[in-house]
Every structure is written in C-alpha cells, then in structure tokens.
C-alpha cells in the first residue's frame, strides 16, 4: 500500500485555507454573531439555568416622592410631566358623573408628526363607532404624545395637534420631548392616565402607531377571557421575549451600558409594539412606576422590571406579532391579533381582513385542512420567525 504524500499536503492546505476563511468571516461578522447568537445563549443560560435574579438593586428604587417638573441629579427622570392636552372625561358617561363601562382602553403611542397614521387608525381598527355598532363593545381610543423634538418645528406642529384634537378629542399629550429615549415617559403616562381617568376599563392595550390590530378577533378573545371569570385578571399577554440580553454596542440605539444595567439578561417582557393587560395588572404597574427609577429608557424592559416587582409574568399569545409583518392571507386573518410594520397599508389590510365576503372561518373540514397547510407553509419558514411562531400554524 502506497501513500501519496503530495495529495495529503494538498488536502491539508485546503483545510488550512478553509479554516482561515471561516475564521476571517467570524472575525468580520463577530459583532452581529455575538449579538444575535452568543449573547442570547449566554443570557438565556444565565437567566434560566444558572441563576435566578431579581434584575433590581437599590439604584432602581426611588426613595423620595416624585417632584413635579424636576429632574434628579443623576439624570434619572423622576418627573410627573404636566398635561398640554388632556381629556379627563373620556371614559365617563355622557352626564360626566359616572364611569362608563369600557371593555378596552386603547393607548396608541404616536410621534406628534404622524398625523396620517393616526387618521388611518381612527378610520380602521381604532374606530370607536365600529366597536360599538359592529362588535357591541365600548372601546376607547387615545393617542399618547410628547412635544416635537425639533424646537424650530415645535410651534407649527403643536398648532396642528391642537387643531387635530379639536376635531377628534383623542390626544393625550404631556410636556416631555417625544424621542426614543423618552419612551419610558410614555409608558408611565399610559398607566398614570388610565389609573386616574379610566380605572374601570376591563383591559388596557398599549400599541405603536405602525401596527395593525384585528379588532374583531381581539374583542372576541377578550370577551372569552371575561366569560371564563378566572383569566380576566392577572393578565399580561403579547409576544414574549425571554432571556434577552442587553445590547452593549455603542453604535446601537438600543445600547445600554453596564453602569445603567449590570445584569446579562433582561427580565421577561412583551414586545412594546402591542400587548394587553387586565385592569388589575394596569393598577399594579401604575403602583410600580411610583417607586421605580425610570432611568432604563427602553420602555419594554422598564415594563418588565415593573411587572417583576409586582409579581406579574407575561403570557405568550402566538398571534401577537413580533417585529415583522404577518403574511397577507385569509387563513392568517382568521386568527391574527396584531401585525407590526404597517405605516401605509392599514386601510387596505383592514378591508381585506374584515371583509365579510372573504374566505371565512366556517369553511368545513377540507377548508380547515387547507388553511392549516397554508399556515404551516407561511409561518414555519425562517423568514417569518419574527411575526408569528410556527406553533401558530397548529393553533
């Protein structure tokens, strides 16, 4: 038996070149790889397998009461901002003396300049008249806003907001700058306002103004919870993020330094684009905002911290969307609750998803079998992993 050493040397050379190429690619892509894979594995392992921790230390607790319109020395915004636009009687009866029965208080977070998106919501899934006349329930819609971040445009935008509110009476605005780093202020606003002005609402939903809500499906789901009597309380439902790591890259807008948040994992939380809490949970979260320092400017995470303190855990619902759009198909519309990333197609999607002549849910055995196959093909592909999980195809 003879050994061809030249062939062995060629094989080893190919191995070395291949290994070097792989190492080069890993080095170039390490930052993304670390963020999307390595950090998540470490975070999830630490969160659930090695150590269970509280995600809080003394720096996150406010020892003194909030001061109106003041800022703390360390930069944490311990503030109750004054209202610039408010509707204290939104959830009261016509005589203004008693609370109206409200199934759902719908809080939509919207930048001041997004006038067209707010109008599209009023005309579609946020339409209060549709809820009453077609679904037989009382849904109250309000938009949460701050002031425009550009001081040169602020006066003009504010005038437009006042005109918009004179027509629709649904804007709730406080005197903070409406930026990404003040989203926690909006979170506090929604629980503060609901506690004071709409405490009787059975459910509160927080939503971004670029999501789509299939309101008939959501109302049906909430009514089922109410009729069950056991699950209409202690509810926080949405697209749950478990064991997510903080982003340490300084170039990312989600960057959180170790000094602000020292742990390798966030508490469990729902995607802030759209989630629902029951009235009792809304009251608990309001209490948590009174003594937690809102220095964590990622509102989803701050929500998770508040819930952790109050002993509330998020519940996964497979038809609450993640970061991406849901596939456009009648077999998806049958079950969808939310879909993310709809800035310009809300009206067309609303028409398609709620059209009574569309391919309905009572389609028989073969129709249901067909839809099951369609959902498997649409939802079990990696492309849609950030919308609904593959499990939704079998629900």
UniProtKB/TrEMBL annotation:
<dbReference type="Pfam" id="PF01762">
    <property type="entry name" value="Galactosyl_T"/>
</dbReference>
<keyword id="KW-0812">Transmembrane</keyword>
<protein>
    <recommendedName>
        <fullName>Hexosyltransferase</fullName>
        <ecNumber>2.4.1.-</ecNumber>
    </recommendedName>
</protein>
<keyword id="KW-0325">Glycoprotein</keyword>
<keyword id="KW-0808">Transferase</keyword>
<keyword id="KW-1133">Transmembrane helix</keyword>
<keyword id="KW-0735">Signal-anchor</keyword>
<keyword id="KW-0328">Glycosyltransferase</keyword>
<comment type="similarity">
    <text>Belongs to the glycosyltransferase 31 family.</text>
</comment>
<dbReference type="GO" id="GO:0000139">
    <property type="term" value="C:Golgi membrane"/>
</dbReference>
<dbReference type="InterPro" id="IPR002659">
    <property type="entry name" value="Glyco_trans_31"/>
</dbReference>
<dbReference type="GO" id="GO:0030148">
    <property type="term" value="P:sphingolipid biosynthetic process"/>
</dbReference>
<keyword id="KW-0333">Golgi apparatus</keyword>
<comment type="pathway">
    <text>Protein modification; protein glycosylation.</text>
</comment>
<dbReference type="GO" id="GO:0006493">
    <property type="term" value="P:protein O-linked glycosylation"/>
</dbReference>
<keyword id="KW-0472">Membrane</keyword>
<dbReference type="GO" id="GO:0047256">
    <property type="term" value="F:lactosylceramide 1,3-N-acetyl-beta-D-glucosaminyltransferase activity"/>
</dbReference>
């Amino acid at each position: 038996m003879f050994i061809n050493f030249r062939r062995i040397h060629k094989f080893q050379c190919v191995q070395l070149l291949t290994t070097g190429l792989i190492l080069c690619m890993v080095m170039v892509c390490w930052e993304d790889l670390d963020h999307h894979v390595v950090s998540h594995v470490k975070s999830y392992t630490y969160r659930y397998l090695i150590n269970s921790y509280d995600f809080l230390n003394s720096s996150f607790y406010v020892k003194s009461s909030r001061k109106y319109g003041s800022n703390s020395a360390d930069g944490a915004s311990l503030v109750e901002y004054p209202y610039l636009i408010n509707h204290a009687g939104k959830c009261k009866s016509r005589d203004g003396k008693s609370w109206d029965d409200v199934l759902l208080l719908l809080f939509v977070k919207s930048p001041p300049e997004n006038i067209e998106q707010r109008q599209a919501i009023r005309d579609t899934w946020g339409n209060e008249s549709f809820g009453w006349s077609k679904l037989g329930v009382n849904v109250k819609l309000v938009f949460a806003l701050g002031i425009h971040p550009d001081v040169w445009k602020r006066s003009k935008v504010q005038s437009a907001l006042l005109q918009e509110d004179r027509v629709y009476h649904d804007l709730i605005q406080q005197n903070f700058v409406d930026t990404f780093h003040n989203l926690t202020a909006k979170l506090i606003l929604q629980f503060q306002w609901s506690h004071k002005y709409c405490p009787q609402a059975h459910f509160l939903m927080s939503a971004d103004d670029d999501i789509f809500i299939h309101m008939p499906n959501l109302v049906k789901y909430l009514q089922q919870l109410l009729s069950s009597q056991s699950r209409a309380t202690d509810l926080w439902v949405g697209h749950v993020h478990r064991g997510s790591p903080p982003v340490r890259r300084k170039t990312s807008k989600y960057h959180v330094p170790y000094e602000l948040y020292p742990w390798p994992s966030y508490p469990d939380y729902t995607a802030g684009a759209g989630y629902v809490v029951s009235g009792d949970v809304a009251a608990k979260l309001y209490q948590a905002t009174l003594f937690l320092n809102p220095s964590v400017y990622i509102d989803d995470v701050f929500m998770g911290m508040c819930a952790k303190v109050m002993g509330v855990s998020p519940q996964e619902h497979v038809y609450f969307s993640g970061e991406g759009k849901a596939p456009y198909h009648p077999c998806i519309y049958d079950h969808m609750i939310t879909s993310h990333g709809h800035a310009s197609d809300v009206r067309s999607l609303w028409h398609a998803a709620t059209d009574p002549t569309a391919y309905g849910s009572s389609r028989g055995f073969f129709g249901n079998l067909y839809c099951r196959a369609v959902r498997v093909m649409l939802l079990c592909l990696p492309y849609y992993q950030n919308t609904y999980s593959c499990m939704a195809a079998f629900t």
